[in-house]
Amino acid sequence: MTSYRIDHGGLIDRTRPLVFTFDGRSYTGFDGDTLASALLANGVRIMGRSFKYHRPRGPWSAWVDDPNAIMNVKLNGREFPNCAATTTYLEDGMAARSVNAFPSAQFDVKGGLDLMHRWLTAGFYYKTFMWPNWHLFEPVIRKMAGLGEISRDVFEDYVSDQVHDCCDTLVIGGGGTGLAAAREAVETGENVILVDDQKTVGGGLFRTGLIEGQAAADWVEAQVAAIESGGGRVMRATTAFGIHDHKLVGLAEHGKFGCPPRLWRLRPGRIILASGALDRPITFANNDRPGVMSLDGACEFLARYGVLVGRNIATLSNNSGAESSARTLEQAGANVVTLDPTAGHACAIGGKRLRGVELNGAFHYADTILCSGGQTPLVHLWRHAGGKLDWNDDLQAFVPGKAPEGMIAVGSANGFFDLQHALDDARAVGADTARPNKKSSYKLTPLWPKPGSKGRQWIDFQHDVTIKDVELAARENYVSVEHLKRYTTLGMASDQGKTSNMSGLAAMAAVLDRPIPEVGTTTFRPPFVPQPLALYAGQRKATLFSPLKRLKLEPEHRAADAALVEYGGWLRPGWFGSGDPTEHIFNEVQLVRETAGIFDASPLGKIEILGPDAEAFVNFAFYNTIATLKPGHVRYGFLLNERGIVMDDGVVARLGDNRFVISCSSGHVDHVRDHLEVWRQDCNDPERIFVHDTTQHWSTVTVTGPRARDILEKIDTRIELAADAFPHMTVREGTFDGAPIRVARVSFTGELSFEVSIRNTYATALWNALLKSGASIGAGPVGSEAMMILRAEKGYIIVGKDTDGLTMPHDLGFTVPRLKKKAAFIGDRSLHMQVGNETDRRALVGLEVDTGSAMLSTGAHIVADGSKPRTLGYVTSSYDSPTLKRPIALGLLEQGAERIGEKITVWHLGKTVTATVCPPCFYDPEGVHLDA
Amino acid sequence: MRDDRMKWAPAGRELATFEGDGFRFQCVTMQSQALVSASDILTRMPDALGWPDVICGQSYVLSLRRDRVLVVNGPFVQDGWDSELSQAVSDVTDALTVFEISGPNTLALMRRGAEISFEAPSRSASRLLFGFGVFAYRYESHDTVRVHVNHAHSDAFAQALRQAATRMQATLT
Questions:
Q1: Are A761 and B153 a contacting pair at CB < 8 A?
Q2: Calpha distance A242→A731 (Å, rounded)
Q3: What ipTM does the predicted assembly reach?
Q4: Which long-range contacts link A384-392 to residues 24+ away (Cβ below 8 Å)?
Q5: Of B81, B115, B156, which is closest to A659 when you measure between CB atoms?
Q6: What architecture is the A548-603+697-800 domain classified under in CATH?
Q7: What is the pLDDT of residues B47-104, one digit of tens each?
Q8: Is there a contact between B81 and A571 if contact means CB atoms under 8 Å apart?
């Protein structure tokens, strides 16, 4: 065993041992361990396999920047894929297994792929699998690709809590500078939140000795106590994973394994970024071997978990920060040899087990190689917020430059690697006072990948991107870092390039012989570390994903055995009765045609337009002329958008000189209301027009059929219902049971119809009264499916079904306003543009199939005959008509009006049938029933 | 054409009173609610309240936008256009379901559905809560909030409240 647990130190609770398994073998760790630290403590070094070559991988670091130790973890019967072992806290009973390896990470049968590495370079499958067809190879490649396996179980209760919050100052990072800044901010009276992604705040402080005369743990405890006693909040195990517009910060608060994290949408007044810095890898031959690790990572394993990662350690470092780390490891019991990697060519010797390192031809015995290629400030969140980066030549790193509004970086994240310097600076920032100007003692010798050097040198450990891949990409002209990333997959691993990006772009800079800042960085995007989708979804799933509107009369419908179906965002009765719906629907159609049906039409819009300019405004909003509409009358019309396209249809009722009610389509109410509000304020005087959406105040019950009047007459409405007193397309106001009602004689079925609207409170009484009245003559409730057939028989359209995003009103046979309406209306100009005058516009037609043929499929193409078939239109609605005892259909067809009587070919899923074009109205074209 | 009656819980089921840890929500009935719009309505009704005003009494006026208020339990006013006052009136009593959320954790519950705080005032009571357009204000106490929700979405709103309450009470352990 090379790595082991020393008998003292760390933040773990040694009195609480935890048992877990990895790849089927049982191990013991302690409370406070991560999976990675517990495995290292047990001498396990190989924890995964690389993505492409299946090379053995051990952890590179101790926290979020590790790309190697990825596992499927199961606990209490729940398995989660792709858990980072370095950030997954150990729990008793955990069963972890390596991903992308079979049967185990230690021995993986696909490890042989590495022998083929010469042929598997960057972009190999783009080139190799083009012929004869990518899809021939795709299934096998997809099967081989990917990391963990997702559980097939559905965890219904895995739903994230989501909270909005705000504060004066958010400090991101609970290391020394974060704590110092937060404490100062609290002491100036600010409402402060400090977040840190670890359970124990302190960042890398535990790796150091005394801080301002105190032991690290004591110093951290004192800062936390001061922050909390001052009213600040310290949120542990909480990751700031993204910063979005207007300083909206996404925080993921993690709990026990298997619990969905809590999402905090935090809006701070200012953000202090104290996210620290990462130790960079050094690129040398065989630098991906298990046992080659980050020097900082090794010190972190020692400081937090009491784990010494090796017994004989060689350090490769180009910076002044490594010295003290080497001494710390030595004091813990390791033999440490310090080497200077800038001196010449280095090569790790060994396979699964390291034997040493060769530097400039000299062999140095070592079971572990710890690298420190310099510090890379964690600037991801800075970039999310729109902050700029500057290249610092002394640090050989990108550091925060021009700040986004309300954000400031401190400590290592800002390129301040001297602790006391960083603490003084952070305190000044926290208190919002002048920042001290000190010179850093941190020294570094530039050390970057050298193109053309010997051996396989890894840049992206997880995705197996080597320096040769970068060279190849450059030769093939993928020289932009964004192209390099996508061509080689560099930086696209689960760590999103935290270890690989700097080396990758430095390698490209070297290949191109350009300075690193000229090559630039790729785009930093949230999330900083992977988050489960449940975090974003929260409770907006299932019926809360897109909640339907509910009818006041739903309990009555359920009691009447209604099948409830979604129509236009409402849950409505599709038909009444269980069992085969077709039979029920046909019966309901016949009921309406022969007697009468009673239909819940409550979702129909009731948008009131009020004010002295209401008449002009409705006339402006509608394609049809409304100005001539008299009080007590109703008119059908279209609402167009600016492009002259039919947006909705409906009827307008005029209740008085200054009051109209627009009854638009059920599913378009919200859109129509907003459309009217926009135009009210845009082209009109908003002080003289008001739009009130009263749709949900009312329930509407439609009585339709030849006996409709008989049904309505049996209830007391105080309205004269005779045809001459109450003709088609008029509206009357009356009462039912003392409540005001509004009755409109409009029809969507082609039959005599009365739409009775009453406020919801009285809707149940009205519905039951009408059902009772109807029952005496054999009438009953009907659902929306029957209405679909009834309106299609009559040739009435549904906007959005029988129209599309190109349909203008003259395509539907409504030509007069376009030619004669003098007043301006929305869409007018567009109707006269070239597109509106095209002779091959698709017009609404009826379609009849040959006798004995089956009904057409909705959506089927109407095609031109000939050697090169072309779509002339399509079927928009198609039904078996119970009334006509044959199929009927509506469609949009090029030059449809001129094709009446023409035989056309209809194609659907490879089959063709013939049909005859006819007028869209199949039932009662003279309107005898309507005007009854 | 799919029968979804089993997918959706019967309407009204979610509206029952719910008590959680530090909050309680229930439906309350308003005698009347009327939308009144006029360009000078806020001048004529300067007492119209927004967020986080604490409203007292049975009858009150909510400010919705610069030209619109909601009169709750006010005197009867005829629907339609009033030429004298140049104002539009529509009865919406049955269009809005009113929820009352009370208790020390009321704001914590509401924060599950909106970026809301007592420190961020608004002249208007209109806001989005759990994705629904609502009117929200404090009623008679600092930790009681009334929320007016479109009737057709009242079940969904109540369901969202219940689920948020459940999530809020669940710890991460």
A1: no
A2: 57
A3: 0.97
A4: A384/A242, A384/A243, A384/A244, A384/A524, A384/A525, A384/A526, A384/A528, A385/A243, A385/A247, A385/A271, A389/A521, A391/A515, A391/A516, A391/A517
A5: B81
A6: 2-Layer Sandwich (3.30)
A7: 999 999 999 999 999 999 999 999 999 999 999 999 999 999 999 999 999 999 999 9
A8: no
CB A20 within 8 A of CB A38: yes
Choose the mutation target among A549, A607, A660, A761 for the interface with B, i.e. most B CBs under 10 Å. A549
Q: Do B92 and A694 touch (CB under 8 A)?
A: yes
* Cα radius of gyration rounded to whole Å, chain B: 17
Interface test with A, best of B115, B127, B149, B169 (most A CBs within 10 A): B115
Q: For chain A, say whether B128 makes contact (Cβ under 8 Å).
A: no
Cβ–Cβ of A759/B156 closer than 8 Å?
no
H/E stretch holding B67 reads: none
Rounded CA-CA distance B121/B116 in Å is 9
Asked: is A839-918 a CATH 2.60.40.10 domain? The reply is: no
Quote the DSSP letter at residue A34. B
Amino acid at A608: E
CB A144 within 8 A of CB A95: no
A183 three-state secondary structure: helix
Q: What are the structural domain ranges in chain A?
A: 162-278+377-431, 548-603+697-800, 607-693, 839-918
**Is residue B78 within 8 angstroms of chain A, CB to CB?**
no
Q: Which residue, among A113, A114, A99, has the nearest Cα to A46 in the 3D structure?
A: A99
Is residue A763 within 8 A of residue A603, CB to CB? The reply is no
- In the block, which residue shows the tokens 């396989």? A456
Query: pLDDT of A823-876, one tens digit each?
Result: 999 999 999 999 999 999 999 999 999 988 999 999 999 999 877 889 999 999
Digit-coded pLDDT (tens) for A764-823: 999 999 999 999 999 999 999 999 999 999 999 999 999 999 999 999 999 999 999 999
Q: What is the pLDDT of residue A130?
A: 85
DSSP for A513-540 reads T--HHHH------S-SS---HHHHHTT-
Looking at residues A498-513, what average pLDDT do you find?
A: 95
Architecture per CATH, A607-693: 2-Layer Sandwich (3.30)
CA-CA distance, A552 to A554, in Å (whole number)?
Answer: 6
Q: What is the pLDDT of residue A865?
A: 81
Beta strands across the sheet bearing A570-576: A549-550, A570-576, A562-567
CB within 8 Å: A164 and B154: no
Query: The tokens of A268 are what?
Result: 């701070």
How are beta strands A407-409 and A262-273 bridged, if at all? parallel
Q: In this complex, do B94 and A696 lie within 8 Å of one another by their Cβ atoms?
A: yes
CATH superfamily of domain region A162-278+377-431: FAD/NAD(P)-binding domain (3.50.50.60)
Q: Which residues pair with residue A266 across a beta bridge?
A: A165, A249
**What are phi and psi for residue A100, nearest 5 degrees?**
60, 30
B90 Cα to chain A: minimum distance (Å): 7
Domains of chain B by start residue, with CATH: 14-169 (3.30.1360.120)
Window B:11-40, CB contacts with A under 8 Å: 11-12, 35, 37-39
Q: Is residue A277 within 8 Å of residue A296, measured between CB atoms?
A: no
Beta strands per DSSP E along chain B? 18-20, 23-28, 33-37, 54-55, 60-65, 68-72, 80-82, 87-91, 96-102, 126-129, 132-139, 144-150
Nearby residues of A356 by Cβ (< 8 Å), 6 or more positions away: A314, A348, A349, A350, A363, A364, A365, A366
Parallel, antiparallel or unpaired: strands B54-55 and B60-65: unpaired
**Chain B residues in contact with A761 (beta carbon < 8 A):** 93-94
The Cα–Cα gap between A825 and A646 comes to 13
Name the residue of chain B whose CA is nearest to A761's CA: B94
Contacting residues of B for A166, CB less than 8 Å apart: 115, 117, 119-120
